[in-house]
Amino acid sequence: MPGIRPIEFDRQAALDAVVEAFWSGGFAGTNLTGLVEATGVARQSLYNTFGDKRSMFLAALRRYSEERLARHASALDGDPAMDRLIAFVETWRHRRARSSGRGCLISLAMGEVGQADPAVAEVAAHHARGLADLMAASLQRAGVEATSARRLAGSLVTTSFGIATLARQRGTDEQIEAATETAVAMLWASA
């Protein structure tokens, strides 16, 4: 008697759909039925592949972070480094439109789950460190001293997360614009 064949599906495509579902609904607002609908994968197959809802959320956060950090690295790669960094920061003013008002999934996770879940906090910290490292490297290539570059990069990451929160929490376009302009001004002052 032949064994039952496991249902096959594209794990990465399913994970991308899980990212989108959690990004739209957050952890609390996303249920298993919604994840099944978003992925087109049966509930048991999702469980077998990713684990429980929390495990799916962590996998989604890691995937989102990995993809975003790769995209940011590409945007910041090249010279003149300061021009690339300023252009990168300038994109923050359009974050609401680019994310359909969802902001950043990492910021959402920290606002919703925060320090209550150490695994979520670690993914968020890893993402923040990765973004800070990319920006600090750009600043150093632009001639900013290493310690100053790290401090400024940390401030920029904090501003980025603030703008992402504003984008999701119905902050005004004026608030987002002001925060972006302040970040750009910090970069010009460091040049």
In whole angstroms, how far apart are the ends?
Answer: 72 Å
Q: How large, in whole angstroms, is the Cα Rg?
A: 19 Å
Strand content: under 5%
Q: Kindly state the mean pLDDT as a whole number? A: 93
Q: What percentage of residues falls in helices of 4 or more residues? A: over 70%
**Largest beta-sheet details:** none
Q: Which spans of ≥5 residues are poorly predicted at pLDDT below 50?
A: none
**3D shape:** elongated
Look at the helices and sheets and give the structural class: mainly alpha
Spell out the helices and strands N to C: HHHHHHHHHH
The count of helical stretches stands at 10
Strand segment count: 0
Please describe the topology of this protein.
Blueprint: H1 11-25, H2 32-39, H3 43-50, H4 53-76, H5 81-90, H6 95-98, H7 105-112, H8 118-141, H9 146-168, H10 173-190
Helix pairs in contact: 1-2, 1-4, 4-8, 5-8, 5-10, 7-8, 7-9, 8-9, 9-10
In short:
The chain is mainly alpha-helical and 191 residues long. It has ten helices and no strands.
Q: Would you kindly provide a written description of the structure presented here, covering whatever features stand out?
A:
The chain has 191 residues and is an all-alpha fold. It contains ten helices and no strands. It is elongated, with a radius of gyration of 19 Å.
Kindly list the characteristics that best describe this protein:
single chain; 191 residues; mainly alpha
